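Supplementary Methods, section 5.1.

A reviewer requested that the exact input to the structure prediction be made available. We therefore reproduce it here, unchanged from the version used in the analyses.
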Amino acid sequence: MTTIDAAAATELIPGLRYERPFWTGRTHVPFWGLVIPVTLKAVEGDRLVPRQARILREILAYPHDLRPAFERRLFDYYQQHVYDCIDFGFDDDGADLADTLAPRLDKPDDIWRLIDGPDLWIDWCCKSEHEAAVEFELDFTCTWDDEHGLGVRYRNWEIAYIGGYGG
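The structure derived from this sequence is encoded token-by-token as follows.
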């Protein structure tokens, strides 16, 4: 496997630092419109693969806003797989926890009040057929799953997966 040192990534994200086994930093990500945490999973100690540097460059150059399509897809996912699908039990006063953790949402932009994040993750490995793809994950905390959170994997700027972290 061809690996590179982190110089290519540190040129793109000043202050990128190695915290075994990850390279972490914060940078403005145009497709999200915010400064967000970025994590690159290292291989062979503190090395990266060229694919990770290529994907990071493409992410930082991508001019389109992914949030509107994300909002619609996540709202649909929530309606199909979360709302009224999970038994959260009851609090000490007998109130249904679903009313707080997974309440009814009336419109797509309501989803934002249930999530926090994202963190951007770029892994070193992928399926061989996805080697040339721009593939990354956005991870969020969410009210309905504090253990697994919410992971949204993108492949070539389209959502390929919605579920728990790293799914």
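Strands lie at 17-19, 22-29, 34-41, 115-122, 135-142, 150-155, 158-163. These observations are discussed further in the main text.
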